[in-house]
């Protein structure tokens, strides 16, 4: 195996491929199957699609600052590099660890959902029931193999799954709209005035749920170095992912309200994850329903793989800067892929799954919800750090950005994300569907705070004992040249001059003495 210390290969993927990588990481079909029915059960009705529209607008503001930072600092470290230039090196290291921890938590939650997604297919086609760990092991093997491939190959596989997922969701949504409840599309399916007014806490919780559903879109920044245009492709892809996710989540959730009727959607949503398939069963052929279930499974697999690739780039960036072992910063010469980082992430995931199985764990929908919510909250804190970093850096060192991109958009995104983060941690028991005093409600904020604290301590230790490595944080592997100060020169003692040497006439002409 040929190992190289050279960087990632540029010009491998375009903005569209990066956008599909980000779309797969958000797993919109998982949100529609597991989250939207639970929200509709609470009587939110048409507020659900409007909440996704509001979340999309908020995150488009965030993309303005993120795209500007990518244009200045295109790096596989993405948020870690960006925050390091805006909030300092300790903040950059905290952002990197938040990203890695959050993506791992979401990935483990998706592994827990893989068995549930595969169960109807295995039962219908083969008449067997597979344990969760067997399905997770198969998914893990596929991800471990694909993760070491060229980025353009992995992007093609993930992009194929993402496009198929979007196409199937569009088809199912079109069927819902073409065959509405009662034979016509009721105005109450989209007009908020016809629905019961929810309290302010419920409205805030609805917005938080919508924003957390986008977790993973920001991973587009990790592919900046490998884009056709390193300073532009990833930034454009971020905008594209937000728009696509908003259309899929907002449009399909509205189609579910149309299909079940504004007055009957809350009762129909009691079916939970089966709601989307029940609506399809009433309108489409059985093979279309089976295709939808297959897309759910492939959507889970594509999200796991997309998160694996994103985590790999973060580990590679930290290894390249010597913050983590340098072996993680090496790539395989033939594929220009960070093989060591990919294998490391696969080993972490495999060990976690094996440990869960050995402990007799049987993760279900609730476990998946807790893991994904915890990971999404970590990403929410990460987005807030990036927004603040964009505001500070873009104004401290002005560039080509105008007043909107440099100041207005970062300020609006910072205030909005800070408000959403406050609401998320305040309403965490409702997000997790747990009592307020439950240990997990306190464990998730504590884990996020501990992640940030440990990262800051790590950075301070590097500054104290490895100053050269500390100086390289956020520089994307750019060599740090330390020029030692010149040694102090020996002090020169001035030679005593002859009296009057600067005035020769005083030496040759003696003044007369007193007479």
Secondary-structure arrangement, i.e. CATH architecture: Up-down Bundle
The CATH class label is Mainly Alpha
Strand content: under 5%
Q: From the 3D structure, determine the CATH topology.
A: Amino acid/polyamine transporter I
Task: Give the fraction of residues assigned to helices.
Answer: 55-70%
Overall mean pLDDT stands at 90
Largest sheet geometry? 2 strands, antiparallel
Low-confidence stretches: none
What is the CATH H-level superfamily?
Amino acid/polyamine transporter I
Radius of gyration: 29 Å
Compute the number of helices: 20
Structure description:
The protein has 515 residues and is mostly helical. It has one domain (3-471): Amino acid/polyamine transporter I. Helices cover 67% and strands 1% of the residues. It has 20 helices and two strands. The chain has helices spanning 15-26, 28-34, 36-41, 47-72, 79-87, 89-125, 132-146, 151-178, 200-212, 233-260, 265-268, 275-281, 286-320, 339-358, 365-396, 403-426, 428-432, 439-465, 467-471, 504-508; strands spanning 3-4, 331-332. Strands 1-2 form a two-stranded antiparallel ribbon. The N and C termini lie far apart (105 Å).
